[in-house]
Amino acid sequence: MAAPLDGIRVVDFSRVLAGPFCAKTLQDLGAQVTKIEPPRGDVSRVAAPINANGVSGYYAQQNAGKRNLSIDLNKSDAREIAYRLCDQADVLVENFRPGTLASFGFGYDSLKARNPRLIYVSISGYGQGGPWRGRMAYAPTVQAEVGFTHHSLRHFGNNLKAPQTDALSHADVYAGMEAAIAVLAALHQRERTGEGQHIDVAMAATLMAVNEHAHMDLNNLDPGDDPPILGATDGSFFEGPDGEQFMSAISLVNTITFTWFLAAMRRPDLIDDPRFRSSALRRSNIDALKYIVQQWIWTFPDMASLDAQFDEAKIAIGEVRSMDQVAESEWADYWGATYRVPDRQGGEFRLPARPWKFSGAQFDQPGAPSEQGEQNTDICHELGFSDDDIARMQANGSLVDNFTAKMIAMVSAQLDARQAQYGEHSDEKPA
Question: Among residues 77, 172, 226, 307, which one is catalytic?
Answer without folding.
Answer: 172
